[in-house]
Amino acid sequence: MPLRRACVLGVMTLALWAALGGTAAAGAVTSGSVLTSTKAAIAQQTGVHVVFRANRVSSATTEKIVADVGVTTGQETVSEGQSHVAIRVTPGYGYVSGDSSGLTAIFGLTADQAKKVGSDWVSWKAGTSQYANLKADVTFAAVTALLPGAKGTRLSTGLTNGANVYVLKWTAAASSSTPMLSNTLTVSASGQSLPIEQVSTASGGTKATTQLSGWGELVPASAPPAASTITSTKITH
To answer: Which of 3, 74, 96, 219 has an alpha carbon 20 to 30 Å from 125's alpha carbon atom?
Structure first.
């Protein structure tokens, strides 16, 4: 290799290493160190905008979730074909509304329960298991769930829209309810180590993409009008 080319490549390598926050004294950046810094960066945030899309090979239907996630509150809309559901979580209550097929096929209510809800919002009080499940879906618990364990996770670097990124890849074994998944998580390597996108591909070919943006922004969820709210006890009895 000509000396000039070797020097140029050496400078480029050092520049990339510096951009990724590494130094000779600090040692190599690992998947474990990236995940640790990512968890710490997420813990400092107040909100993030999340867009999830899943395309199934066996169906032309696309599932889409658009969410504004906060620390203790959040909201999202879920659509699958013509069916849709909206979810809001405040410190005191969790609320769900949707069309009949959304309430049954997506959220899991019975047809009779969905009929009782109608066009209103059904509410669950904080402290109930259903409230806890709703909260986990629209707060940072859902974001940290995207992160893998360090063991078995491979780390590389790359560029996304001209910015340096870490690329984490791992597989999740199949279970009785889910197929084997191949996952790729892209994390910013400039500034705070915050997730940008996760792509999961199932062994059957289904692909799901989760995009995260607007870190630090908080869109607070508000309670629906009281006149449009029905308590969960009224639909289960």
So the answer is: 219
The stretch 34-45 carries a mean pLDDT of 96
**DSSP symbols for 2-15:** -HHHHHHHHHHHHH
The residue among 110, 87, 88 whose CA lies nearest residue 100 is 110
pLDDT of res. 25: 31
CB 230 within 8 A of CB 115: no
pTM here is 0.83
Q: What is the mean pLDDT of the chain?
A: 87
Q: How many Å apart are CA 178 and CA 234, to the nearest integer?
A: 34
Q: Using CA atoms, how far apart are residues 81 and 54, in angstroms rounded to an integer?
A: 11
